[in-house]
Amino acid sequence: MAIPRSHQSTVALQGAPSIWMLVGALQSALWFFALPPLLKPYWSSCFADFSSSTAEMILFLLIIPFYFSYIITVALPPYLLQWNFFEQYKISRDPWPWLDRQESVRRKFWSLTYKTIAVDSFGLLFVFPVMLYAKSIVMPHPGLSFSDDEWPTYRKSCVDMASLALLHEFAFYWTHRIMHMFPQLYKFHKVHHEYKQNNCLSAQYFHPVDFVISIGGPAILVSALVRPHSITQFQFGLWLLYTNFDDHLGYAFPWSPVRWFPLACKTDSHEFHHSVNLGMYSSKLEVYDTVFGTNKAYNKWRKSRYDVTDK
């Protein structure tokens, strides 16, 4: 069992005041304030020749390269280098399975990795596009706007982003919790829990049924409810993907751009969920685990491990 380990007092924790918190906040500021004006000159012209449904499909596909860029730039360096600077933020006591002394453990890891790549590809390149196509049939009204004339102000983007985040997290919390509550559904969700110690590849490792219910479903329904401008939807999609990767990274880096603000879940909360299979059904915002009381075991563990009382 991948039990998270305690940290020395000199190690900065996610959400605790430090220079790293400022680094995380700066990354978020660039994502929110700098990305839209950077893309605006090219945005509408890139989608002008496509129907609304096709444009939305292309918008989703534009997020896919981020999948690989995250792995290359954020995940692989600490995984491969194994520098003490990175390892001090490793959540689990256990060695990474690809470095384990037991050949059987290494062999099992690589077998699961090959399976994960196939399942991830199927979900992202087939299941979700099919869901988007189904949405265009069931809800044929005009979809996202790609127009420069309707380009959102920062205030509008902020309101829409907050609405998307709160609604999506509510939907994810309950679909995720339901997947744990009913054995008929958990048999699909337990595929994701084959990973007891997370790494970034496990982020999108879901049985197709689980993917439809707890991943694709909330994302598509919330977008249809809020109907943000396409640039806001693109930014939100990047945030979702980054946070999901960060949930499964295996390191609680204090400079993470999705963990520095007060309502953010900590990376170790999802590692805790995987290791003990108890509570912490949220992944991005701690709001609903707090409201519905499913964070008590995690809070007790975190206080004993880190000697903190911030939750």
Automatic annotation (TrEMBL):
Residues 163-294 form the Fatty acid hydroxylase domain. Its main location: membrane. It is found in: Membrane. The chain crosses the membrane at residues 12-34, 57-81, 112-134. The keyword Hydrolase does not apply. Coiled coil: none annotated. The keyword Cytoplasm does not apply. InterPro entries: Fatty_acid_hydroxylase, Sterol_Desaturase_Related. It comes from the Eukaryota. One of its GO terms (cellular component) is membrane. Keywords: Membrane, Transmembrane, Transmembrane helix. This is Fatty acid hydroxylase domain-containing protein.
